[in-house]
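An instance as discussed:

___
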Amino acid sequence: MSSAELLSLSVRGLGVISDVTLDFAPGFTVITGETGAGKTLLVDALTLCVGGESRTPQRGDELEVSAVFRQDSVGEVCLQRSVTSSQRLKSFIDGAPTSSESLRVRSQDLLIIHGQHDSLRLKNRTEVLAMLDRFSGIDTSELDRLRAERQRLIDEQVELGGDRSERSRQLEFARFQIDEINRAALTTDTEIEEVLERLESLTEIEDQVQAINRVGVSLDSEGGLDDFAMAVSALGTHGEIGLLRERILEAIRAIRNDTGSLLDLIDPERVDAAEIDVLNRRVDTLRNLARKYGGSLSDVIRAKRDAESLVDRLAGAEERSEIVRTLLAEYEESIRRESSRVRNLRESGGHRFAGEVNGYMSRVALPNARIEVIVSGNDGSDVELHFVPNPGAKGGPIQQIGSGGELSRVLLAVSLVTGESGKVTVFDEVDSGIGGNVAQSIGQCLRDLATEQQVIAVTHLASVAAQADHHFVVEKHVIGESTRTIVRAVSGSERVSEIARMLAGDGATTESRALAERLLQR
């Protein structure tokens, strides 16, 4: 992993901070100042820069924070957040818009923030597992490969149709569908329309024949046209009546002739009742099939193709399935052996890790405490840190047993053991609740850690502050109705004055300044 260094941090519109910029240097840097001056706001600003959420309200739409890092393999990188007019946070990497998740991913190799109330690394089992594997040099790539190959075989087994009974069920059903559709002997996907058109034509012909027959029956019925003709003939031939008589008789003869022609048009072979019945049954068959397979004959034809494809695929599936089952059994055994090997490595690594961390417990003001690494699961991937605060006390998961201050100090001990030298490490009030020689020891631990990586600490303790290579003071000034926070880099006599203030308050004395000088010399 390439080494990272925080070069600068700019903050505008966050809490009481109006506009400040800090330029950092390698080594151990402390940030001090009176309570409420805004020290922790700088940590909040860094948290925002790496994609996290701030606990501090912003000033309207003024918020803008940016952190510039230098990474050996990459060069400079700028992580930035700013608020929009709609009060939404925008994220940027090197000036290009991005997401907060991208900021989190990009910053993983750059920065670690340890806060008194944010010791997530010790609470999150995934983080603890990753930390243990890095410490122990455990490579799980072979186990990951075996599991990936097993999953590929499982997926293939599913594609083959599951187990033997499932494949048999699918094959039987697909063949039933094919047989059912084949029995229907479809010609085209428009056959329903074609059959209906033929049926409509035959029905119309049948109706015409029946109508013609009714005309013939009516003409020949008793009291029909013959009686009428005889009555008309009796009218005689005299005068105008005779003329009308001839016209009516002529019409009767025309009706007889036309009716005969109409009856001659009747062709019994044009009307096939059996064909009509066949066509009606065909329409019912096709409609039922279409409803069953999606609504149209196109759906029926598509269903047949799908069923035929499934049969082709399942036909050779049994042989391949036997091969897959054999391979799965072999992979399960390989995974079992590799999981056991990895678990043994994690168990032994956990013992060594706990031993080294416990060796630092006195230096981080926890002389009677110890941690244990509890490894569970087939491959030891279920890892949890247990914390025993005092001899004889009941231990338990660190997130349930340890206080905020204890968690921060355990984190410091863990950091000294793991030595993630490639990352900038920030401690927010890790020394809360301690003093005296313990504070001196905490400061020395931080200084030791800074030989491997850049360390930044927010502290209230003079003994810790005096150990730093670089020192920033956060000061709050109330001017009239407004409050302004500034950040100053201090050295020489100004740093002596700040250490003296931390020792004795604002009323620093000659004695406190002398003590501050001795701490700095030490």
